[in-house]
Amino acid sequence: MPIEIPKDKWTGSIRAVTIGATSAEGGTRTKTVTVGGQTTMPYLQYEAMPSGDEAPNKPVIAIEIKSRKPEDWSPLLADVWGEAMADPAQWAKKAEEAGADLLVLALTVEDTPEDAVRIVKSVLSATGLPLIVWGPGQAEKDNELLVPVSEATNGEKIVLGICEDKNYRTIVATAMANGHLVQARAPMDVNLSKQLNILVSDMGIPKDRILMDPTTGALGYGIEYGYSVMERLRLAALQGDAMTQLPMIVTPGFEAWKTKEAKVGEGVPEAWGDWKARAINWETLTAMSLVESGADIVVLRHPESVKRVKDAIEELVTV
Amino acid sequence: MALSGIQIYKMLPQTNCKECGFPTCLAFAMKLAAKQVELGVCPYVSEESKKQLAESSAPPIRLVTLKAGSEIKAGNEVCMFRHEKTFYNKPGLFIRVKASDPDLAAKVAKAEAYKVNYVGMDFSIDGFAVEADGDLTAAVKAVRDVTKRPLILIANDVTHLDSSLSLLAGESALIYAADAQRSDYEPLADLAKKHKAALVVRADSLDALAELTQKVQAKGVEDIVLDPAAATLGASLTRHTQLRKLALKNVRSLGYPIIAFPCDAKDEGIAAAQAIAKYAGFVVLSEFKPELLYPLLVLRENIYTDPQKPIQVQPGIYEINSPKPESPVLVTTNFSITYFAVANEVEGSGLPAWLVVTDAEGMSVLTAWAAGKFDAERIAKAIKGFNVADKISRKRIVLPGHVAVLSGEVEEELPGWEIRVGPREAVDLPAFMKQVLN
Ligand code: B12
Ligand code: SF4
């Protein structure tokens, strides 16, 4: 007797969100990136509704670069990016060569608003990739830098981040005024994510201009929470909860490269094995676990992880 | 289907004889329905009822145990997503070795000796998969000289399997595999029965898998493991998910643990990570590589921790490197990961310290702070409750850098104490202790 394969019948779907604008669309990007559109749990395309025949958008990889040479990054990252780390435009080019679908440019507290605008523009002219710009992560400074950046890049459809419950109004307002998107981050909690999405969209920004960042942890440092929160957010979205139907962006690169396992090569247990291979495994396995629990954009740091995750995504969509 | 207490009650003698230790048969039935007592406790259940109850209480995924000097269990899972309940039996990680390999014994010995510590827990590999590309019996002998861990035998020559399994008397090994593309399932099933081994059933469609499993079941084999033979990450995710779903719907022909072979995948690490998160019970790796094994063991621990209970350590005062009265007092929370991040750093530095672990309900420093479980009051309570002052000569505590904002309040709660703010990350603690604390 043939086995009847049970299918969950979902009523909801993830909203498709496009980042970046080409010259025809009022920007200068040579390509745009569209994520979202899923109607099933990750990669279970056999459950797609008949109308959802076309495959959803694949997850994409952003490479994280910084406006100034980071002093606290693992030496392994300094080894691969070399000189480019001191020049965001050059770094952006190298990241594009390394296979990035889009870029994250993280500004720092040392940047002035003029620096920020200049650096963002230099990155935009160095590559044709869509861009995400993060403030340094301090509310006042974020607003001080992101507003002029947003104005100077009107129409480019960049993503501005990171909106949190304490600080989202200014960022959302400037994104709306200049045709950009926002990244909304809540601390690993389904209800907090929903709540923040409501606050952000209540300001009037269209829902296809919001990326949801549920916050994640690295392997060994809290990934289990992030993993399950993402599964629950995706389940809620498919069950029809409009406030969770947004593509998810997560930062496994940032989380993995802050762990001792990735940062430190000497004086660690022999059982941890070869430093470089272990560090890259740390980032890659963190990222892939999140991709399989629903991530649409993973932000990575090491080119080798980028390559492995990219190949794996291709393989995931081939059944 | 699980039966309710009332349904079970109807199958009991209903004499209320109390021999089971419960006042009535109904009380016993309720406990049985809640799986808090074994059926065997009642001596008077009829054979007919026993059979019915056994069937209804069988878990949707059969528990398969591979046993030798140690054992590894797979199966007995009850949900699709870990947040619904939890995942119970961590998939066994096996290292594949070849019978023809001249370095076989040395390779096995190296993997056998592997031990790694993650937040206070020691992890190792679970067993070996021996591939019969040479003399299997000789290989099994050689392997058994170096390890007592459970074995998977990858072979289809019945004679060689028979003599190899004879060497493993008293163990439960796993035979790989009865394959839907071959017609030799019968001798393999007989062999599994004879040697009390488990048998893998392999097929690349679920229909064929179910069909062959039923044939093997009919031969009397109870411990079966499924290999859905998926060639890509997409296929394995799909098939493993379908298998778990079908098993949870009580499709008995597919209610068995799954075996995965990341060793044959394009990217072994990624395939193994997927197998761990997505429903495999046994995972076969190509070779012993600590730089991959360690992250996989950590991932497995993370995915299989109970989402309701963060791993915690006992609150209290911990002595690191034999502290003296003048040694510094460090304060942290009782989330395991936090405790070990700090304890390992200090221990590794060789510097003595008292580590006061507060009861923060198992949360990390910032999480606990945000949730109000790590505040001045709790810190003061810990310092007083654990009688820290009696052990030391200098009343001084060091707070985690992330909660620098607490220092004023802690000062108020602990008059007469000097409050210092340490670095944000534990990695920087040794340097801080050497340079700043004196
Ligand atoms: C996993 C996690 C959770 C898990 C809980 C995990 C747990 N058992 O604690 C869950 C999902 C349950 C959770 C919940 C919440 N979380 Co939370 N969570 C995290 C996350 C992702 C990782 C935390 C972690 O495990 N870190 C690893 C451990 C080892 O770090 P640690 O304890 O700080 O220890 C390090 C240092 O502090 C130092 N250290 C430790 N002790 C000592 C001692 C001394 C003397 C020194 C010098 C150093 C030192 O060494 C360690 C290694 O360097 C962080 C964000 C992030 N990526 O960091 C957010 C985060 C901590 N959470 C946050 C929040 C707000 C919450 C919630 C309040 C949200 C909510 N309302 O639901 C809840 C609170 C819980 C509740 N109400 O029940 C915020 C805190 C914001 C802030 N700065 O105030 C964070 C920072 C996220 C964010 N960016 O917003 N969270
Ligand atoms: S031992 Fe059996 S018959 Fe006696 S009270 Fe218990 S359940 Fe009823």
CATH superfamily of the largest domain in chain B: Dihydropteroate synthase-like
Cofactors, ions and other ligands in the entry: cobalamin, iron/sulfur cluster
Number of helices of chain B: 17
CATH architecture identity of chain A: Alpha-Beta Barrel
Number of domains of chain A: 1
Identify the CATH homologous superfamily of chain A.
Dihydropteroate synthase-like
Low-confidence runs of at least 5 consecutive residues of chain A: none
Kindly report the average pLDDT value of chain B: 94
CATH second-level architecture of the largest domain in chain B: Alpha-Beta Barrel
Walk me through the structure.
The complex is a heterodimer of chains A (319) and B (438). Chain A has eleven helices and ten strands. In chain A, strands 8-7-6-5-4-3-10-9 form an eight-stranded parallel sheet. A two-stranded antiparallel ribbon of chain A has the order 1-2. The longest helix of chain A is centred in the last third of the chain and has 18 residues. Chain B is of the alpha/beta class and 438 residues long. Chain B has three domains: 53 residues, Orthogonal Bundle (3-methyladenine DNA Glycosylase II, Chain A, domain 3), CATH 1.10.15; 240 residues, Dihydropteroate synthase-like (TIM Barrel); 120 residues, Rossmann fold (3-Layer(aba) Sandwich), CATH 3.40.50. In chain B, helix 10 runs parallel beside helix 11 and helix 14 crosses helix 16. The interface between A and B is large, with 53 and 53 residues. The complex binds cobalamin and iron/sulfur cluster.
Features:
heterodimer, A: 319 residues, alpha/beta, eight-stranded parallel sheet, 11 helices, 13% strand, globular, B: 438 residues, 3-methyladenine DNA Glycosylase II, Chain A, domain 3, TIM Barrel, 3 domains, 38% helix, 17% strand, binds cobalamin, binds iron/sulfur cluster
Please sum up the structure shown.
The complex is a heterodimer of chains A (319) and B (438). Chain A contains 11 helices and 10 strands. By secondary structure, chain A is an alpha/beta fold.
